[in-house]
């Protein structure tokens, strides 16, 4: 993991440590553990952690933990999952990094404990349910923002950590559906394996290779701020439009100053809270929360100049702890 990602890891681990709430060793051992496993380190997961904290306060009889994946790969997540199984956890929620290569591991987990997915699904696995965004619909939302930003069309490029993740593939699908039949041309989708240095290089290369590029979009939370930096460094702020995903503080600042058009935000607080509370419901024999299609969809929202101040204040409140 590169340096910038390590910096993000510290507050997340501090948040995870705060979830112990144990009053003594023997009491802690008696508590059943519930864990949410991330696919990266980012403010997005800090906010999800706040949702876990709310669930913890409501259910002090459980030990609810946030597990930040150091290695943002299927192999890295496999190690985290195997460790949790050894510990005998009662339930796991996970943002799946590479669903096609994770199915066997996920099925093993599902055979031994309650397993749900959040943020990024693995629908072919035996997970109980998915809690999170309809990522195809979120992609369409982003595509509509592209059309607003480029009414006369133009070339666009997309950036994401990996196309192995369901949420990445589905967002791209939704974007393509939204821009079909317009004069907007997608030149390519560039992946960076959750490496900030590689992501930055991808963006700088696109700005050079495509001097007429009209819009750049980062599909994972850490990428839009890097696009913001790259566009500014290239002297193209205001000339190259930016549309993002998620609510990184720099993304919100970019919307405030007009460098970024808008961003499609999810509700990671709800991902955390609903993951923990619905695992607890299941442990208590209640599966009525599971929809017929096994997908509990949490709506997304577009943040633009008109509502960024109010939304920023809300995010600062969630992150200030």
Could you characterize what this model shows?
This protein is of the alpha/beta class and 321 residues long. 48% of the residues lie in helices and 19% in strands. The chain is built from 12 helices and 12 strands. The chain has helices at residues 3-17, 25-30, 43-58, 74-87, 99-112, 135-149, 166-179, 196-209, 223-233, 249-256, 268-283, 308-319, and strands at 32-37, 62-67, 91-94, 114-118, 130-132, 154-160, 184-191, 213-218, 241-245, 262-265, 295-297, 301-303. A 6-stranded parallel beta sheet has the order 2-1-3-4-5-11, sandwiched between helices. Strands 7-6-8-9-10-12 form a 6-stranded mixed beta sheet, with helices on both faces. Helix 9 links the parallel strand 8 (213-218) and strand 9. Helix 4 (74-87) packs parallel to helix 5 (99-112) and helix 10 packs antiparallel against helix 12 (308-319). The radius of gyration is 20 Å and the shape is globular. The relative contact order is 0.14. Residues 1-28 have low confidence and may be disordered.
Write the layout of secondary structure elements.
Elements: H1 3-17, H2 25-30, E1 32-37, H3 43-58, E2 62-67, H4 74-87, E3 91-94, H5 99-112, E4 114-118, E5 130-132, H6 135-149, E6 154-160, H7 166-179, E7 184-191, H8 196-209, E8 213-218, H9 223-233, E9 241-245, H10 249-256, E10 262-265, H11 268-283, E11 295-297, E12 301-303, H12 308-319
Parallel strand pairs: 1-2, 1-3, 3-4, 4-5, 5-11, 6-7, 6-8, 8-9, 9-10
Antiparallel strand pairs: 10-12
Helix pairs in contact: 1-3, 3-11, 4-5, 6-7, 8-9, 10-12
């Amino acid at each position: 993991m590169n340096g910038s990602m390590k910096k993000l890891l510290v507050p997340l681990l501090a948040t995870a440590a705060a979830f112990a709430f144990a009053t003594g060793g023997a009491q802690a051992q008696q508590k059943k553990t519930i864990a949410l496993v991330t696919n990266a380190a980012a403010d997005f997961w800090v906010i999800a952690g706040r949702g876990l904290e709310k669930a913890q306060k409501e259910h002090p009889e459980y030990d609810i933990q946030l597990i930040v994946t150091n290695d943002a790969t299927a192999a890295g997540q496999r190690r985290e999952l195997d460790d949790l199984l050894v510990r005998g956890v009662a339930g796991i929620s996970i943002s799946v990094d590479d669903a096609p290569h994770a199915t066997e591991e996920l099925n093993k987990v599902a055979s031994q404990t309650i397993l749900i997915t959040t943020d990024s699904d693995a629908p072919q696995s035996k997970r109980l349910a998915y809690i999170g965004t309809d990522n195809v619909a979120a992609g369409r939302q982003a595509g509509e923002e592209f059309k607003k930003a480029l009414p006369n069309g133009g070339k666009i490029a997309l950036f994401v950590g990996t196309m192995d993740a369901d949420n990445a593939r589905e967002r791209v699908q939704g974007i393509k559906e939204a821009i079909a039949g317009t004069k907007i041309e997608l030149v390519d989708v560039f992946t960076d394996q959750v490496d900030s240095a590689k992501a930055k290089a991808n963006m700088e290369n696109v700005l050079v290779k495509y001097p007429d590029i009209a819009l750049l979009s980062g599909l994972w939370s850490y990428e839009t701020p890097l696009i913001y930096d790259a566009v500014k460094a290239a002297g193209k702020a205001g000339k190259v439009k930016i549309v993002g995903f998620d609510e990184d503080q720099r993304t919100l600042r970019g919307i405030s100053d007009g460098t970024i058009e808008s961003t499609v935000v999810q509700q990671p607080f709800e991902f955390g809270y609903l993951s923990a509370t619905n695992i607890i419901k299941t442990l208590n024999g209640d599966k009525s929360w599971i929809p017929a299609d096994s997908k509990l969809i949490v709506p997304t929202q577009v943040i633009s100049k008109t509502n960024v101040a109010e939304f920023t204040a809300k995010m600062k409140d969630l992150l200030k702890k």
